[in-house]
Write a structure and sequence with these properties.
about 5% helix, mainly beta, about 425 residues, single chain
Length: about 425
């Protein structure tokens, strides 16, 4: 029940919040608020309240409660009309509820106002590429599209025509590009998704399948998810091979079976490193590892199957993609260390890079270079970095950066399984209405 306030407790307000999950698996909230005020004076109004098709105003729909003033009137004299007609607002628990009385058996008339808002998350990862500044790409033979590793590995036939798995066709059209600046250079490669900019003059073209909106600002949270916790304890410094302990004394003897129990390793520069999982009976299991690099990242890097690694770096990244190996496989997962089934079927989710934003005037660059057509599967969340892709690289995952530049025919396949991997930065109101019932 709402708490009364105002003179003699004549006002009251209440709010309720319901959570639900969108079709994309994101947590959303419905907020309903009701404000009520007592009405004094004569118990009559000069309004047309003739019912149409019924003899009572307390019936199932507004159409038979009266077509005229009743649709606007929200004054109650004896009973709460909303609960009587609509229950909780969704048609549940409809009942006739008498209004409070003045102590002498006389109901206290009231007028109410109801509003409803839907709050949706502002997700750090909301498509293939998100920048706070400029975007350049894709090349003439390049493409940006999407898939969902929960349904199996990327299949180009699905993206091209919906066959042989037409039920997953919709997952191929969410390769969204969000450019937070006015510099958007669209080459002749296809973008299967929506494009937003903040002030560019880009128009819808035959190379963009979705919508184009040039009035969408992008605000990246530089410290969101990119700073390692200060209380960490390192297992070792700069090992060439990482073999996580099956029982970690720094985590109360727990195995590295989650990010909370993941061991920490530190490097001045990360290169020529192999990371192995915990094995049970010679079979690799899902294992979690954290790495802090107080400098640059170079290849070669080998992440063996089963390894989940978060790499926090302060310097630059220079990776020859042909020397980068992520041996996890999209669409399949191993068992957890305790033998339970893992739900992590995204190769990109297994390898996560987090760039700690530099302090101006310092800069940060991520440079991927390739000969041939190698692939790299990873999530890149580096809001202060300039991201550069050279050559015919096949990228799986997602990129959040300061600027994105591609000078080759890069194939970029956004894995929708990464969409809710990082907690929302904030929430925004997607809809707001006043309930006139």
């Amino acid at each position: 029940m709402p708490n009364p306030f105002g003179a003699a407790g004549n006002l009251s307000a209440s709010a309720s919040v319901d959570n639900f999950t969108s079709v994309d698996g994101y947590a959303c909230y419905r907020i309903r608020s009701v404000g009520t005020a007592r009405v004094f004076g004569l118990r009559r109004v000069g309004m047309d309240d003739r019912p149409t098709g019924a003899t009572s105003s307390f019936v199932s729909g507004s159409d038979v409660r009266g077509r005229g003033d009743s649709l606007l009137r929200k004054i109650d004299f004896n009973y709460d009309h909303f609960i009587s007609t609509y229950g909780d607002g969704d048609g549940n628990n409809k009942q006739q509820v008498a209004l409070p009385n003045d102590g002498n058996g006389n109901p206290l008339a009231q007028v109410s106002r109801r509003v409803e808002a839907i709050a949706v998350p502002i997700l750090p990862v909301s498509g293939a590429i998100k920048t706070s500044g400029s975007f350049y790409g894709p090349g003439s033979a390049g493409v940006i599209d999407s898939f969902n590793s929960k349904n199996g590995p990327y299949n180009p036939d699905v993206a091209l025509g919906g066959t042989p798995l037409p039920q997953y066709y919709s997952d191929s059209r969410d390769g969204n590009v969000n450019c937070g600046g006015s510099s958007f250079t669209s080459l002749t490669g296809d973008i299967y998704g929506n494009v937003t900019t903040d002030g560019a003059t880009l128009k819808s073209t035959k190379y963009i399948t979705g919508s184009v909106d040039n009035n969408v600002p992008v605000t990246l949270q530089p410290q969101a998810a990119v700073s390692p916790p200060p209380s960490r304890q390192y297992e070792s410094t700069s090992p060439i091979t990482i073999d996580p302990p099956a029982s970690n004394p720094k985590c109360s003897g727990q195995p590295p079976d989650s990010w909370a129990n993941a061991p920490w390793y530190s490097y001045t520069n990360l290169q020529n490193v192999t990371i192995n999982p915990v094995t049970v009976g010679s079979t690799p299991r899902e294992t979690y590892v954290n790495i802090v690099v107080n400098g640059d990242i170079s290849t070669s890097l080998i992440i063996n199957q089963g390894v989940n690694v978060r790499i926090y770096f302060t310097g630059n990244v220079n990776i020859k993609v042909s020397n980068f190996s992520n041996k996890n496989v999209d669409g399949s997962s191993l068992a957890n260390i305790d033998g339970t089934s893992s739900t992590n079927s995204s190769a990109s989710a297994h390898v996560q890079f987090y760039g700690v934003s530099p302090t101006a005037p310092a800069t940060q660059t991520i440079n991927l270079d390739a000969n041939g057509k190698p692939s790299i599967e990873a999530l890149w969340y580096a809001p202060g970095a300039d991201f550069i892709s050279k050559g015919n690289i096949v990228m799986y995952g997602a990129v959040v950066c300061k600027s994105f530049y591609e000078n080759g025919d890069c194939f970029f396949h956004y894995d929708k399984a990464l969409g809710n991997l990082i907690s929302p930065n904030d929430y925004r109101i997607a809809s707001y209405i006043e309930d006139v019932r």
